[in-house]
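User: I've been trying to design a sequence by hand for this structure and keep getting stuck. Would you show me what you'd pick, starting by listing the structure so we're on the same page?

Assistant: Good idea, let's start from the same input. This is the structure you sent:
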């Protein structure tokens, strides 16, 4: 059996946003990540995927649930134990412009985690490690005394990756690491992460809103909607056999390079806005935009269940009791209405 490096069990994260309002960012989310794999977490912005990453790392306190890292309960450890554990987990942030201190040199930025953890006693050893890290991410040791503003977006993200690698972590949470970069640079950064993963046996949680990019980099993918995990399977299966109506809509929005196939293809346009996580819909959170919604979807939250080996989904269409119910939701497609009229 494959070895799990991370297990997230029934994780809940709510934020008190004042005036008696509670923002339900993450609702009862469970998933696990095997050693050496990349798990992609995808969904629209505001769906809670970054909150999960930050809660795993302890940057946010969980509301309830558990996070296990190498079979140790992260939130049950003493401060000292957590400090040691977090050496093994690092984060690459979305915005390479905002995540690097503009007043620090590259040497200071990369050496900071090494100094905080007291890894080297001699300055010469510390500097050699900084040079080594710069070269690992495709930069030069001559860059060491420069400031972040002297670099391009892609180079800054390389600096962020070098800093994340400084402590030799086993697990990296990459939170939208390429979405602030030019398209031409995105592939270079993804290729760099893939190479480092191969060479160092790293495990990644890759968070992104772009399903096509997640697929390129991920072994398995979890799809999130409004704080809930709605589907999970491996990248190939998600593309070939998507089950959840939301996944199908996300996939239908990805352009296909073949103009003939692209012209023939039916786009699923989701009507309406993403509801507020302060006041999410009852039952299935996707029901206000789902073309397949049924009466049951309003009252009963669908169960997160495994439909076939490794393929999980939360949708009443796959419940034995409800799967044959006709769609009654407000967002039925024209095709459905036409079929009904013809019948
Ligand atoms: Fe949710 Fe119902 Fe649509 Fe399934 S069919 S996604 S349960 S609204």
């Amino acid at each position: 059996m494959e070895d799990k490096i991370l297990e997230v069990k029934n994780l809940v994260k709510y934020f008190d946003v004042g005036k008696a309002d509670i923002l339900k960012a993450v609702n009862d989310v469970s998933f696990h990540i095997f050693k050496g794999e990349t798990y992609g977490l995808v969904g629209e912005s505001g769906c809670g995927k970054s909150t999960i990453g930050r809660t795993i790392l302890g940057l946010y306190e969980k509301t309830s649930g558990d996070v296990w890292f190498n079979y140790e309960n992260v939130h049950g450890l003493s401060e000292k134990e957590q400090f040691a554990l977090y050496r093994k987990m690092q984060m690459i942030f979305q915005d390479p412009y905002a995540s690097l201190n503009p007043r620090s040199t590259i040497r200071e930025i990369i050496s900071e985690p090494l100094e905080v953890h007291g890894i080297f006693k001699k300055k010469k050893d510390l500097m050699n490690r900084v040079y080594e890290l710069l070269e690992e991410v495709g930069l030069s040791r001559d860059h060491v005394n420069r400031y972040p503003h002297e670099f391009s977006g892609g180079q800054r993200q390389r600096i962020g990756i070098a800093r994340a690698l400084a402590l030799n972590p086993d697990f990296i949470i990459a939170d939208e690491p390429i979405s602030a970069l030019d398209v031409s640079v995105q592939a270079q950064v993804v290729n760099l992460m893939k190479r480092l993963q191969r060479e160092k046996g790293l495990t990644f949680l890759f968070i992104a809103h772009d399903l096509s990019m997640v697929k390129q980099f991920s072994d398995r993918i979890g799809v999130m909607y409004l704080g809930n995990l709605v589907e999970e399977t491996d990248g190939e299966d998600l593309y070939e056999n998507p089950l959840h109506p939301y996944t199908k809509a996300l996939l239908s929005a990805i352009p296909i390079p073949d103009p003939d196939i692209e012209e023939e293809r039916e786009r699923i346009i989701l009507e309406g806005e993403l509801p507020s996580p302060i006041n999410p819909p009852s039952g299935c959170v996707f029901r206000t935009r789902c073309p397949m919604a049924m009466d049951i979807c309003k009252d009963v939250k669908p169960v997160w269940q495994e439909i076939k080996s490794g393929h999980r989904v939360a949708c009443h269409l796959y419940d034995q009791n409800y799967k044959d119910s006709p769609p009654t939701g407000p967002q039925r497609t024209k095709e459905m209405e036409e079929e009904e009229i013809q019948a």
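That's my pick for every position. To get oriented when you compare it with your attempt: The CA atoms of residues 7 and 41 lie 14 Å apart. The two ends are 50 Å apart (CA to CA).
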